[in-house]
Amino acid sequence: MNSITDMPASARSATRPLAGRIALVTGSTSGIGLGIARALAGAGADIALNGFGDAEEIADLQAEIRAAHGVRVAYYNADLAKQDDIGRMLEQLALDFGRVDILVNNAGIQHVAPIANFPVEKWNAILAINLSSAFHLTRALFGAMQARGYGRVVNIASAHGLIASPFKSAYVTAKHGIVGLTKVIALEGAEHGVTANAICPGYVWTPLVEKQIDNQAEAHGISREAVIRDVLLAQTPSKRFATSEEIGALTVLLCTKAGQSITGTAIPIDGGWTAH
After folding, report:
1. Which partner for 131 in 57, 73, 112, 174 could form a disulfide, CB atoms 3.0-4.6 Å apart?
2. Inter-CA distances, 145 with 29, 248, 260, 268, Å
3. Is the pLDDT of residue 134 over 90?
């Protein structure tokens, strides 16, 4: 379930704001989660990766992050839809790192269908991974964060945590739930040095989005540019995708001393989409 790299012999820089912190980022073997993991590592945090993917590619990611930033990197292949997997991951993580200071709940899946024929199994899976896993992980780690007087919970919600779109009933429900959960965590952690915030991206440039562009261009017989401007970014005033690097940078800010008074918020990174 775990493979861990050793920290390089060279000492890590004490000037990095998250040096010595341990960060667990779910859904971090690609896309937004990987961007967040890289940003946290760049700020000095040791990284626990979680997600699915090719074993060799994940091993390469571990080596890349370690070499670039001089931090320890572990990987856990827990299926976050399964409570037993979550428990085993946290047990192994405690052996490897001793604690978790920063929890980034990023893992998520999507399915699009009208409510009248939305598959029940898809509803259950989306709620389990996108919402319940964040509760289970926070519940397990929150007490120790409070006792230490420091903790950061960063939930990756979505613009759909603030507004709705048709045909995304499970996803919108889960993301609205994440925003509500974030507020509760923030209130309970406020006097103990534990903050909680939700980041709410619009469309983010990732390999999955790039594939979606190609698929829609082929399906509708239109150009990639038309798909981007008139379909995906139709409601985005800036007409540009957010990047995983931007989301990573905000996550780092929220985890540093500069972010200690930012808590209980839902922060859009959506090019103005939710300003309508």
Report:
1. 174
2. 25, 22, 14, 26
3. yes
Q: Which of 4, 65, 67, 3 is nearest to 40 (CA)?
A: 65
Any idea which residue has 């989306």 for tokens?
Answer: 126
Q: What is the largest CA-CA distance in the chain?
A: 58
**Is residue 203 among the annotated active site residues?**
no
- In this prediction, residue 14 carries a pLDDT of 45
Of 75, 76, 171, 203, which residue is the catalytic one? Answer: 171
Buried b (16+ CB within 10 A) or exposed e, 192-212: bebbbbbbbbbbbbbeeeeee
pLDDT digits (tens, 9 = 90+) for 143-174: 999 999 999 999 999 999 999 999 999 999 99
C-alpha 6, offset from chain centre: 24
Rounded CA-CA distance 17/179 in Å is 27
- Render pLDDT for 46-100 as a digit per residue (tens, 0 to 9): 999 999 999 999 999 999 999 999 999 999 999 999 999 999 999 999 999 999 9
Rounded to a whole number, what is the distance in angstroms from the first to the last CA of the chain?
A: 45
CA-to-CA distance for 182 and 234, rounded, in angstroms? Answer: 29
